[in-house]
Amino acid sequence: MVKAASKKEALVRIARRDSMAMWKSVAIRLLAVVLSLILSGILIYAIIKENPLKVYESMWNGAFGSVRRTWITARDTMMLLCIAVGLAPAFKMKFWNIGAEGQILVGGIATAACMIYLKSLPAWLLFICMMVASCVAGAVWGLLPAVFKAKWNTNETLFTLMMNYVAIQLTSYFVALWENPYGSNTVGVINQGTEEGWFPPVFGQEYMLNVIIVMVLTVGMFIYLKYSKQGYEISVIGDSQNTARYAGISVKKVIIRTMLISGAICGLSGFLAVSGASHTISTSTAGGRGFTAIIVAWLAKFNTFTMIAISVLIVFLEKGAIEIASKYNLNDYVSSMITGIILFFILGSEFFINYKLIFRSKSKEAA
Amino acid sequence: MTGFISLFQAAVVFGTVIMFGAVGEIITEKSGNLNLGVPGIMYLGGIASLAGAFFYENSTDSPNSFVCVIIALLCAFLASALGGLIYSFLTITLRANQNVTGLTLTIFGSGVANFFGGSLNKLAGGVGQISVAATSTAFRSGVPLISKIEGPVGQLFFNYGWLTYIAIIVAIIAQWYLTRTRTGLNLRAVGENPATADAAGINVTAYKYLATCIGAGISGLGGMFYVMDYTKGTWANDGTIENLGWLAVALVIFTTWRPKNAIWGAYLFGILYWAFFYISGLTRSSQEIFKMLPYVVTIIVLIFISLRKKRENQPPEALGLSYFREDR
Lengths: 367, 328
Known about the structure:
heterodimer; A: ABC transporter involved in vitamin B12 uptake, BtuC; 2 strands; B: mainly alpha; 14 helices; 0% strand
């Protein structure tokens, strides 16, 4: 590239775009999704020799084929969304919280502990206990890397990543401790007969409470980031720590405060997973969603409403892939593969939103 | 003594997997690319070598062990380098965020590997377990002469598959390359400050691409070693490679970005990881607490290097940041 530039103008130059019309950026992203679906379709066709359109149709059935399935899709979307909402403030601050996986797990452990040891409490009190315990557990897990980042600038990406594995082992420890029945190496469904600590049905729907809680968080976080003073401080630090310092913002304090919030919401999603969905705890309670949510939060550019759309897309793919896996006798890892391809395309499409390519001939005409 | 010997042996085999992973990732990170796709890359390397060996063994009646090894090595290296190429294209050319791209690569790699691993198991038929016995045996054969050494010394140091020693050699070469060669120093300059390197006439893009792809290729050999040696040429969708991949990322920090430290660091991680097995009187739950050790030790090292602020122990200055010449 250097050589080419010295002789004559390079074939393509890259320049940053100032801004782009909303519809254009949406169109580019949609195009990316369509392209990736075509590529995945070709791949699926190569493997199972079935019309890809039919495959996508059965994917749709897998995710929304019945009322029950739609609710499960909604439940899992809410879980993913909740984590992404939790990550949003940290990422906006450019604090790379890769530790959601661990924060979910400790939140889940705290919830399960309440379900097991405090089941004699009245339902509403138990509910509050679980909620508070899961938030506190997640917040502590987020606090540790934040304190070291604020005080000694310890690399938070690597610190939070390691905290995940400490949490996974901690979960294994509690699974072995609470094992039921003995020797099964799983906790089993907690309070199966009595359903203590389970989410009660709201409006007759089992998972309505999950939706309500996460929607409140989604709206709340949007307002917090966009209209509150603290949200403004977060975005200033995200742009430039030096500017923030100059403006008199206590960077350390904001980092610690934001990570407490971020960790607490991720911990709360552990509460959703244990009390509101599976009613058990295992090392797969988080199941990689802590990592997927990072991608959701990033692609949504911290806009919590955009996160809803991306979460739906990803959970749809997951459910759909599980359906085609069972229908065509494949294994359901095909969903990770397709998710990976789609995310690669969306990530790549960001480039065309942020930058423009200027071709040689075109720029000469302009000159 | 026998207890220690078997612990050490387990640690060396375990350590070799993550040593490959970590040395590859060190080279990648020295170029300023924080590739969190290591687990995915190791998955790609593992499954590619397995698939290559499987189809070769099925195509002939008497597989030649040398050809087996070459095919597995090539497949593993190329598939992982391809993973590195996807990452490079997205982060270097298209300037996507490194963390997010790396995590996506991990999702993608584990999806591809477990999907095809499961399919291969089905293809293999019978009990539903693929096995590439000839290739695995070829990989697990010891080094001529020294593998004959008897006694505890022989058992401790000379009783492993030849790839174990290749891992050490690769680490030494990587160390030499990064500290003693001009291109190695250039690579480090790119990772520390790409703008300065660019001004000095170093082709930043080329260095980043090559370091990431070659680094990914080396990391992928760890996945291959896991499949061929550790699990003796079989496949299970149990997520172990992913855990080992993250451990490799941890090891990179532990070594403070020096390949030579990966040699003993990897074995130390192996000992820490397996220690619970050799300590008597642990309940099953407290064993799990012991398995935290490698990660806790890494966190402590991470805190320690940030507290001491010794310049030579820090991560590459531009680690995790995309470089765009016009951005300054």
